Amino acid sequence: MADRYDDPDHNDHLVLMTEGEAVYKLGDKERAYYVFGRIYEIYGQKGFAGDQTTYPEFYKKEKAARGE
Question: How many Å apart are CA 67 and CA 60, to the nearest integer?
Fold first, then answer.
């Protein structure tokens, strides 16, 4: 998705969140973990607002389960 929106470094918040939400809802938790991790890395907790507040919870729980 990032290639289509000229975001090869995966830095654009809108592109990342759109991809993250889509793959999460489609059940691709592995990809969602990567994308939400990237958002968290770049923007921190402020990268998640409104309806998106469940995603950092998912990311943190998954990160803890992986021992990272």
Answer: 11
What is the Cα–Cα distance from 1 to 3, expressed in whole angstroms? 5
- What contacts 35, CB < 8 A, 6 or more positions away? 16, 19, 20, 23
pLDDT digits (tens, 9 = 90+) for 2-56: 456 566 777 889 989 999 999 999 999 999 999 999 999 999 999 999 889 899 9
The pTM for the full model equals 0.85
The tally of domains found in the chain comes to 1
Q: Is residue 54 part of a domain?
A: yes
- Give the residue from 22, 62, 67 showing the smallest Cα distance to 40: 62
